[in-house]
Amino acid sequence: MYEDVAAARRGGRPTVARRLRRADHVLFARVAATRWPGAEPVLPRLSRGADHGVLWFGTAAAVAALGGPRGRRAALRGLGSLALASATANTAGKGAFRRARPVLDAVPVIRHLTRQPITSSFPSGHTASAAAFVCGVAMESPRWGAALAPVAWSVGFSRIYTGVHYPSDVLAGAALGLGAALVVRRLVPPRARGTHPAPPPAGAPALPAGAGLYAVVNPASGGQQYADPVRQLAAVLPEARVAVADTPAGPGAGPLPELLDTAAREAARHGGALGVCGGDGTVAAAAEAALRHGVPLAVLPGGTFNHFAADLGVASIAEAGEAVARGSAVAVDVGRLRPGEPGKPAGPPVLFLNTFSLGVYPELVRWRERFSPPLGGPPGTVAAVLRVMRTAEPVSARINGRRREVWLLFAGAGAYHSVGIAPVRRDNLADGVLDVRIARAGDFARARLLATALAGGLARTRLYAAGRLRRIVVSGLPEGTRMAYDGEVVPAPTAFELDKLERALTVYRPARS
To answer: Does 183 lie in the same domain as 58?
Structure first.
């Protein structure tokens, strides 16, 4: 007010910033002067409960326990968004804006927090975390998001009500939280809702109650986010024969390959099917066994992301069990990597159901596997992306006869659509093509690729090329280069050919009207 008078005496007008600041102080004073009888016993406790994200970690546990597979995905997405928002607000945000906290003289003592914060007032970290968590949850599950929105609003308002933030601090925190949720959405797009276009139908035996199904469960998949998959399987398909692996999937990893081969052989002998419960790497290993013995495959979701099951349209063990009981199945393509120069094989082929890649993505998978157990799926992915973008180096290779320096060579077993940094959704599992994407090296390529990916314009940059091919030949790779396929990271051959086995695998899938 005095600033306005001084400005008038000088013949000038108050600046926009001063007007906003004055409005901010006036609104804060009005909230402080207004009696809120119903809020006094609630909002200070709610504000304290949100310290260090404790409120949202508890909420995430409840959503994961009550919401089924979608609830678990929503909880992980919310926590990933919260982690990014909290880190941004409490480091870059508060470090860049040194704003003093409001004076508490006008705020009733009953509202004061036991411990007054001493960091910068701008932006509100509590509000950023609340908005990020609820927006992240809503992107995966709108119903849970709507149910939690009033809680997030109350946390934000409680920061003004208790006198520790100005309204503009809270608005900035809310905007930052929404932005964090959108960044995580770019990096890890949510599951597509609705029906999936069905691949061509295929003949598969109906196995009521699972009689004739020989299933292998990999309990190491999914970070143990699925409670007792063996019991779930027994409830849905009580007559299925079930074996449990004691080590994760991967080349030469313990008994899992032997269990899958034995189960597939028994299924072929009895006219049944092979079942697998695990993540994408486990499912890819099972697909190889199913093809080797000529039996249908039942995919029982049990991993962290379950990309193949999601693209197939199988959301749960119960849905897979329904398809097995009815004999509802489709034929899908399988990606194939053949080591060696064309016409000169140098080893057995490697099969993949989802994706193959060289460059930064294998490193992303490796770091995600390291960060995801302690942080959770989406937070682990965000941490892995930040690590890889800082440390990765381009790979030199001859691709279809032309030497290139690339950050990423990606080949999907089918055409993908995505707004994320890597494609993660397919509509058609039997389209006969490889979705090939190449990110070339260049000046400031690392930063430019990340910026355009987060902005959703990756396909428009000169550093990025995409096409749908039936075959791709790679040679001249340095020794020790890593490749990733279906979540597994292994050494890559120095030369190989990628193509597809079209409609080679029969997979159970619930019938869609």
So the answer is: yes
For residue 149, what is the domain's CATH number?
Answer: 1.10.606.20
- Let me know whether 362 and 271 are in one domain: no
128 contacts 88 by C-beta, under 8 angstroms: yes
Q: Is 288 exposed, middle or buried (0-12, 13-18, 19+ CB in 10 A)?
A: buried
**For the chain, what is the domain count?**
4
How far apart (Å, rounded) are the C-alpha atoms in residues 176 and 132? 8
Q: Are residues 468 and 357 in the same domain?
A: yes
Alpha-carbon distance 291 to 120, whole Å? 61
Is residue 319 within 8 A of residue 508, CB to CB? The reply is no
* Residues 63, 71 contacting (CB under 8 angstroms): yes
Beta strands per DSSP E along 343-495: 344-345, 350-352, 355-359, 395-399, 402-412, 416-417, 425-426, 434-440, 464-469, 472-475, 482-485, 488-491
Contact in structure between 353 and 56 (CB atoms under 8 Å): no
Instruction: Tell me, yes or no, whether 494 lies in a domain.
Output: yes
Residue 470: strand, helix, or coil: coil
Q: Are residues 350 and 493 in the same domain?
A: yes
Q: How does pLDDT run along the chain (513 residues), one tens digit per residue?
A: 444 544 444 455 567 778 888 898 989 889 888 888 788 888 889 989 889 889 999 999 999 889 877 888 899 899 989 999 998 888 877 777 788 888 888 888 888 888 888 888 889 999 999 999 999 999 989 999 999 999 999 999 999 998 889 999 999 999 999 999 988 887 777 765 544 455 778 889 999 999 999 999 988 775 444 557 788 888 999 999 999 887 544 443 448 889 999 999 999 999 999 999 988 889 999 999 999 999 999 999 887 678 899 889 898 889 999 999 999 999 999 999 999 988 888 889 999 999 999 988 787 777 777 877 677 666 677 777 777 767 778 889 999 999 988 888 989 999 887 644 456 678 789 999 999 988 877 655 555 555 555 544 555 556 667 789 999 999 999 998 999 998 788 999 999 999 999 999 999 998 864
- In this prediction the pTM is 0.64
The range of the structural domain enclosing residue 351 comes to: 338-503
Q: CA 38 to CA 44: how far, in whole Å?
A: 12
Among candidate residues 510, 382, 427, 411, the one with its CA nearest the CA of residue 81: 382
Residue 303 lies in a domain: yes
The string of DSSP letters for 276-302 reads EEE-HHHHHHHHHHHHHHT--EEEEE-
Using a 10 angstrom Cβ sphere, with 0-12 exposed, 13-18 middle and 19 or more buried, the burial of residue 462 is exposed
49 and 158 belong to one structural domain? yes
- Estimate the crossing angle of helix 68-87 against helix 54-66, to 10 degrees: 160
3-state helix, strand, coil in the chain (%, to 5): 50, 20, 35
CA distance 436 to 419: 16
